[in-house]
Design a protein that fits this description.
Number of helices: 12
Helix content: over 70%
Strand order of the largest sheet: 2-1-3
Order of helices and strands: HEHHEHHHEHHHHHH
Structural class: mainly alpha
Distance between the termini: 89 Å
Strand content: under 5%
Shape: globular
Radius of gyration: 25 Å
């Protein structure tokens, strides 16, 4: 009884990450695929942002939402992956309680923002296809500002409450977080006092984001497909519509399904091996961030045209500089104008 009372007067202020305990000896090799994944996230999303920024024809609501999604993907991956790589490579796997709560807030906040953006993109496509004559009236700058404010308020308040409840807990047992980042329930499971409020808050998050958002997304795509099937007679166009909507839904389902399982496994006490749970948590963060530039960029004709346009212009500039001699300024100017004229003709 004395040990128990002493334990209740002590709470850990730092924690240690242990995501794949079975592979602890091979942590440096384990860092390789995650480092490659992180580089892919940075390159893919940065390239898509660059294209949307520099191609004026892409400055429309749909591609602005894609650009915002890319920014969120970069930020959420940066919130967890660099710290994880430092732990795998150099055994810098400790984190303070304050650092853990900060990482938790930004991880879940950015994930909830991504959920809202996916919903906004689905509704944008619904209006564009099902209400094309009213698109400019419905999807305008005021609506985009309102969406941004709604996203920040909804995600910020809910995740701040979630983190606040976690920070009020007493951690007098183990200080080992069986994950590679401060997931909400991974930290809460270490508490030695009642976690009923935390479990209820976790379920509320799933209902608020997964239950509401994914229901509206699925309904939007069902309506889109029904309109396309009624309006399109050509089998190739129908197949293209099915393929595009189906791909988007698969990516969204992976995002929501994996996230829901990781949340519910703790709330419903579902026994999932530590390594599997850690992998699912990382897939929940990294998979959408890697695949979104492919789905919304590589497979989109407007993005492909923007990419070719940017790099053709840069290629012309480089060739012009190489052709122009460094010595004679007048000669360089004359050749520059002549070469540019020939490229344009």
């Amino acid at each position: 009884m004395l040990d128990a009372s002493l334990g209740r007067n002590f709470s850990h202020t730092s924690f240690v990450f242990r995501g794949f305990p079975e592979l602890q000896r091979h942590s440096r090799l384990l860092a390789l695929p995650f480092a490659v994944s992180y580089v892919a996230v940075l390159l893919g999303n940065s390239l898509l942002i660059l294209i949307i920024r520099h191609v004026e024809s892409l400055h429309i609501p749909m591609y602005l939402l894609v650009c915002m999604l890319c920014i969120v993907d970069i930020l959420v991956a940066t919130t967890i992956v660099p710290k994880m790589l430092l732990g795998l490579l150099f055994d810098w796997d400790k984190i303070s309680l304050g650092g853990c709560l900060t990482q938790m807030f930004f991880t879940h906040f950015l994930s909830s923002v991504e959920s809202t953006l996916l919903l906004a993109m689905a509704l944008d496509r619904y209006v564009a296809i099902c209400q094309p004559l009213r698109y400019a009236e419905i999807i305008d700058s005021s609506m985009m500002v309102g969406l941004l404010l709604f996203t920040l308020v909804r995600s910020g308040t809910i995740m701040a409450a979630l983190v606040g409840l976690s920070g009020s807990l007493w951690f007098c047992g183990s200080n080992v977080i069986w994950h590679y980042y401060c997931d909400h329930m991974a930290l809460v499971s270490l508490a030695c006092d009642s976690t009923e409020k935390n479990n209820a808050a976790g379920l509320a998050v799933i209902i608020c984001f997964v239950g509401v958002d994914i229901s509206l997304i699925v309904l939007s795509y069902i309506k889109i497909l029904s309109v396309v099937l009624r309006a399109t007679a050509a089998s190739e166009d129908r197949w293209k519509a099915f393929h595009t909507c189906g791909t988007h839904l698969i990516v969204m389902m992976c995002f929501y399904l994996v996230g829901s399982i990781t949340f519910l496994s703790h709330n419903l006490h579902i026994p999932i091996p530590t390594g599997v749970n850690t992998l699912m948590g990382l897939i929940y963060i990294l998979f959408p961030a890697i695949i979104n530039p492919v789905i919304y960029g590589v497979r989109t004709k407007e993005i492909q045209n923007g990419f070719l346009r940017i790099f053709k212009l840069r290629g012309k500039k480089i060739m012009t500089i190489k052709v122009s001699p460094a010595g004679n300024k007048d000669s360089a100017l004359t050749k520059d104008v002549t070469f540019t004229h020939k490229c344009g003709s």
